[in-house]
Amino acid sequence: MTTANFVVDTTVLTGRSMKHITRSLDTIITTALMPIAFMLLFVFVFGGAIDTGSHTGSYVDYLLPGIMLITVATGVSYTAYRLFMDLQGGIFERFQSMPIARSSVLWAHVLTSLAANLISIVLVVLVALLIGFRTGASVLAWLGIAGILVLFTLALTWIAVIAGLTAKSVDAAGAFSYPLIFLPFISSAFVPTESMPGPVQWFAENQPVTSIVDSIRALFAGQPVGSDLWIALAWCVGILVVAYVLANVVYRRRITAG
């Protein structure tokens, strides 16, 4: 298959997946509901009792980057679900009998996930603006934030692809996302890591979410990002590459076995 065929096939299959999304907009809304609920809970119930250290803005300004990551972690579970249902429905076997690029089937799910998650993030940001979020970020900073979120979404989506290809049940296909949703709670997303006990602080400061959250927070505030940005990018790219390779290995074995 040529590159041109791959692009055409991926575009057609992505259009198919996007039609499913547009016919079920409640999926995107549902994906955004839990992160929005978390945001409202922490801002209006816990926000007044949380000390954010040197951060001088409102608590929603401090909180939003972590909520964005939780939005993505929630959203990618639907990718695993849709992939699992396609496998169970025999769609993959049907595609294999057609002259299309095999990898385009996976990329269609990945690009659909990227589009759906970015829409969910926009909904979350709009709610944050309504409850007081303000930013002095420049256009370049917003592009940087978008770039980080795209990389993060792609990385988690390829993990979701692995889950969807290996799951034995519908529940298992979505359950992989629970640790990903929980991870921001042990990071700098909700409170400064300095307030945590020693071992928890060490874990929080050396896991990917903290560097990603801190980078986005600094970009929103128009502050220097420093080394956090490079650490965040290294985590995102590293996870993306490993997950992409593993997903394709699992996919080849799955279609060969089938």
TrEMBL record:
PROSITE patterns: ABC_TM2. It is a multi-pass membrane protein. Keywords: Antibiotic resistance, Cell membrane, Membrane, Transmembrane, Transmembrane helix, Transport. Its main location: membrane. Residues 26-254 form the ABC transmembrane type-2 domain. InterPro entries: ABC2_TM, ABC2_TM_bact-type, ABC_2_transport, Nod_factor_ABC_transporter. Coiled coil: none annotated. It is found in: Cell membrane; Membrane. The chain crosses the membrane at residues 28-50, 62-84, 105-133, 139-165, 172-191, 229-251. PANTHER family: NODULATION PROTEIN J. This is Transport permease protein.
